Amino acid sequence: MERFCKVGGIQDAQRLFFEMQDCGQLPNFQTYVVLLDGLFKNRQLSRAMQLFREIEAKKLDVNIVVYTVLIEDLFIAGKIESARDL
């Protein structure tokens, strides 16, 4: 999945993410973080924030790794106030 995100194949990464879930393979924390970062890097900010809310709703361990990805990518996207709020 990480490779898809890095080469601009975010749709393929998302498809793989959903196919994993459909087959009963629940994504782990690292999978969420990779997809979250990939969505930001591919300028899909609303989908990235939606995924972040999903991570929180599933009570996954939102730690420094997730916040680092969020803050860095929000700054890159020019969403400075949102990054500061985090």
From TrEMBL:
Keywords, A to Z?
Repeat
Q: Does the keyword Repeat apply?
A: yes
Q: Which domain of life is it from?
A: Eukaryota
Note the InterPro entries from the entry. PPR_P_subfamily, PPR_rpt, TPR-like_helical_dom_sf
Q: Does the keyword Repeat apply?
A: yes
Supply the Pfam families for this chain. PPR_2
State the PPR repeat positions.
Answer: 28-62
Entry's family note = Belongs to the PPR family. P subfamily.
Classification via NCBIfam families? PPR
- This protein is called Pentatricopeptide repeat-containing protein At1g12700, mitochondrial
Q: Which organism is it from?
A: Prunus mume
Lineage here is: Eukaryota, Viridiplantae, Streptophyta, Embryophyta, Tracheophyta
The record's gene field reads: LOC103327199
